[in-house]
Write a structure and sequence with these properties.
11 helices; alpha/beta; six-stranded mixed sheet
Length: 325
């Protein structure tokens, strides 16, 4: 009996040691990070900054793949169906997780059941921009001109379900003006049309638009944060221009497919949180218009996701934002 117990103990120790070796080896090959938005967007910029540092710290390449469509939902759907082994991850903006399920009639994933939330990365403030030759220099001037227009003012978005659509819809309703959405595949195309004078206005992430603002190619009218962002303190908020409590932005977070091993989840959370505390990384993110918003735990991020999903759904119902037909 003692011999059998010794053998069982020895086998268990060997198996446990092997498991630890396997976990310690993660990652032992390249990791793919899927995003649902095109190159040049805030999501893309932030993800590539994080992927570079993960590659350097973890000794394997973290490769970014853009799977574009349906306001980020195509990429989310692909990631949800991936093998939960830590080698396919998703950096999602808030739209695919909190907005799209309330907008689109059918999606290939459920944000609350098909993913393993790992951790929050950043908050992306949204900025309202117009052509530099636009006569309006403030949000109130722009809205006054829109009210006088014989036809609804067109605005660019990345489609129903995108934060750019939600923020403009809410602002238009609160300002009691009519606006017409012009959907684009990516925010850079909408920006290009505003710069070229073919489109009057768009709301875009600060990270995507700040370079063009600083180059004088876009004129900023307002940022959709409760207080002026430290990333661009010279730009007034929507709040201080007559709309109390107005804050709509996008968050970015790291996810794995449902069933991701807890050890890998913990490893990735620790790595991204260490990266987000690096002064050089924070400076790069700030330069790109992203505010660091790290999660203390994956559980905290899960609670945030559920609350954001429910609160955004209520907002969409309250403002009667319609699904795509």
């Amino acid at each position: 009996m003692k011999l059998q117990f010794f053998i069982r103990t020895l086998v268990f120790s060997i198996l446990s040691s092997s498991s630890l070796v396997v976990l310690a080896a993660y990652p032992d090959r390249p990791v793919t990070i899927i995003i649902g938005f095109p190159p040049g967007t805030g999501t893309d910029t932030v993800t590539r900054i994080m992927a570079d540092r993960l590659s350097q710290r973890m000794g394997q390449q973290f490769l970014v793949e853009n799977k574009v469509g349906v306001a980020g939902s195509i990429g989310a759907g692909i990631a949800a169906k991936a093998k939960p082994d830590g080698y396919t991850l998703l950096v999602s903006a808030s739209a695919p997780m909190s907005i799209n399920p309330h907008i689109y009639k059918t999606l290939s994933y459920s944000p609350l059941t098909d993913f393993t939330p790992i951790g929050m990365l950043v908050w992306l403030p949204y900025l309202m921009v117009v052509n530099p030759n636009d006569p309006a220099n403030t949000l109130q001037q722009f809205l006054a001109n829109a009210q006088k227009s014989p036809t609804p003012i067109s605005y660019g978005s990345t489609g129903n379900g995108a934060t750019s659509n939600l923020v403009m819809s809410v602002l238009a309703k609160r300002a009691n003006i009519e606006m017409t959405q012009v959907p684009y595949k990516g925010s850079s195309q909408a920006q290009a049309d505003v710069i070229g004078g073919q489109l009057p206005v768009t709301f875009d992430t600060l990270s995507s638009s700040i370079a063009m603002v600083r180059a004088g190619k876009l004129k900023p009218l307002a940022v959709a944060t409760l207080k002026r962002t430290e990333l661009a303190p010279e730009i007034p908020t929507v709040v201080e221009q007559g709309f109390p409590g107005f804050e709509i932005g996008a968050w970015l977070g790291l996810f794995g497919p449902v069933g991701l091993p807890p050890a890998i989840q913990k490893t990735l959370l620790n790595e991204i949180n260490l990266i987000l505390q690096e002064p050089e990384t924070r400076a790069k993110l700030a330069k790109g218009g992203a505010e660091v918003r790290a999660s203390s735990s994956s559980g905290e991020f899960s609670v945030f996701l559920k609350n954001d999903y429910e609160n955004t759904g209520k907002l969409i119902r309250d403002f009667n934002i319609k699904p795509m037909e």
